[in-house]
């Protein structure tokens, strides 16, 4: 009993010495909206002006999905755009997007968050949403004036192309007025691709569709067949003269599209027709190679095949990162270990 009383006394003493900021942030982390309300009503600043910006109460609430508390902080004058310097100088809005938290993003935007702030790489919150392929967040940000021309890791359209998020890309092109309207013959070809129907592909081509034409996203139709894993349609296009090395706006080839999506048989078919394994994209495509994409996606069979065919293990993207670097992380441990076993040079020690 004495030990319990002593522990309670020490806890009370520690609490009594906690600063108002510490009490507020502890309540935020615990999700204690009532206690947060009491502290704010008593005059505790929602800004924590004597603390580092990256520990701002609103950042804590936004990163932890505490919607009611974030609303309270904003109502008590919290600046809507604190920055987390240690995490790419991300704004509270970027953290909400990073968490795929549509409700938090809505709260912050209504509270005055600037939609076009840039992180340390020059990417706005819109590019973060596009990275994840989150169409509802993309729509929300566009509705609040997000610009699609801001360039960090490429502009909005280029990021969507690199990530392969078709629905998001179509939305962005519609927003920019850049979506192509295919001819009737090309529409028939696109339907044939969707159905993976080689006979229908040939019929559409005979009716005037172009084997080297572009789909509504302004990318080669061959790349679309590769991306979607349509092997019979892809073979029909190649037989009709589709250029195996045709590139899209960021320098991705059809083989790279197949590799990103994990389509080994499609990649093999393209390579058999002359597709290069050492090709690297344009800078707006981060100068990635097929092996970078296979490593990032954790496609083990493709990694083995690419390496066996001589794809460069040490190819460097536009920031100097190798395929091994793109496989780093617990979620992709098998790809990381496979690349090491195949002879990839270990990454330098951090720091």
TrEMBL record:
PROSITE patterns: ANK_REP_REGION, ANK_REPEAT
ANK repeats: 88-120, 121-153, 286-318
Signal peptide: 1-18
Entry keywords, A to Z: ANK repeat, Repeat, Signal
Keyword Cell membrane (UniProt): no
Protein name stated in the entry: Ankyrin repeat domain-containing protein
């Amino acid at each position: 009993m004495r030990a319990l009383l002593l522990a309670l006394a020490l806890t009370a003493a520690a609490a009594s010495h906690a600063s108002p900021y510490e009490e507020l942030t502890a309540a935020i982390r615990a999700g204690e909206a009532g206690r947060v309300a009491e502290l704010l009503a008593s005059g505790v600043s929602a800004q924590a002006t004597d603390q580092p910006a990256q520990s701002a109460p609103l950042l804590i609430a936004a990163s932890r999905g505490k919607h009611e508390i974030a609303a309270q902080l904003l109502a008590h004058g919290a600046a809507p755009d604190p920055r987390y310097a240690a995490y790419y100088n991300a704004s509270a809005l970027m953290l909400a997007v990073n968490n795929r938290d549509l409700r938090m993003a809505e709260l912050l935007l209504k509270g005055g968050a600037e939609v076009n702030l840039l992180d340390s790489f020059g990417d706005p919150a819109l590019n973060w949403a596009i990275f994840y392929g989150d169409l509802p967040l993309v729509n929300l940000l566009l509705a609040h004036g997000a610009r699609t021309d801001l360039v960090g890791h490429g502009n909005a359209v280029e990021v969507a192309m690199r990530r392969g998020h078709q629905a998001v890309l179509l939305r962005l092109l519609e927003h920019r007025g850049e979506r192509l309207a295919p001819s009737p013959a090309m529409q028939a070809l696109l339907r044939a691709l969707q159905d993976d129907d080689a006979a229908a592909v040939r019929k559409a081509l005979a009716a005037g569709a172009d084997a080297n034409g572009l789909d509504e996203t302004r990318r080669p139709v061959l790349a679309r067949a590769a991306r979607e894993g349509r092997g019979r349609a892809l073979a029909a296009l190649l037989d009709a003269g589709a250029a195996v090395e045709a590139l899209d706006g960021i320098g991705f080839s059809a083989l790279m599209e197949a590799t990103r999506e994990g389509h080994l048989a499609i990649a093999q078919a393209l390579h058999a027709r002359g597709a290069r394994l050492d090709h690297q994209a344009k800078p707006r495509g981060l100068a990635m190679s097929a092996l970078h994409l296979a490593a990032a996606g954790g496609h083990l069979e493709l990694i083995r095949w690419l390496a066996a065919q001589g794809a460069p293990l040490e190819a460097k993207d536009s920031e100097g990162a190798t395929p091994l670097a793109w496989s780093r992380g617990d979620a992709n441990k098998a790809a990381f270990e496979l690349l090491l076993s195949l002879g990839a040079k270990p990454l330098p020690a951090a720091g």
